[in-house]
Hints:
The protein is mainly alpha-helical. The protein has 5 helices and 2 strands; from the N terminus they run H-H-H-H-E-E-H.
Amino acid sequence: xxxxxxxxxxxxxxxxxxxxxxxxxxxxxxxxxxxTLLSIQHQIQVVDLAEIDMLLGQQxxxxxxxxxxxxxxxxxxxxxxxxxxxKDENCNSSFFxxxxxxxxxxxxxxxxxxxxLVFEDPKDIEEHILFIKLDMILLVLIMSLQISEKI
Length: 151
């Protein structure tokens, strides 16, 4: 068991080295590519018209490189979050489902009583509330028309 553990540690170090050699540090790569793009854009502002075509091509290439670096960073964060989710899966799932259940139960109107009328169906509740709001809007409009006629 000890030998297997040591081999896994060496394999982990090998993967880290491979990752750094192939992909590099995604955060540093973005900073470097942003600096390169900014320097090219600064050069475009100060050079003659004869050199602008070459610099515009370099700017386009720098933008593509920056986009690739941003994609690598997004992939890095996606994988990191996925790894953390798997690590704490049961806690995350339980928490998520508890929050959804709480939101569903606490934010909905489940029963509405208006005088002798009782509404328990969500569609009926929605229609009744909409009807009440329309009545209020019509009442305000009628009152404003009456006031404007008196003036």
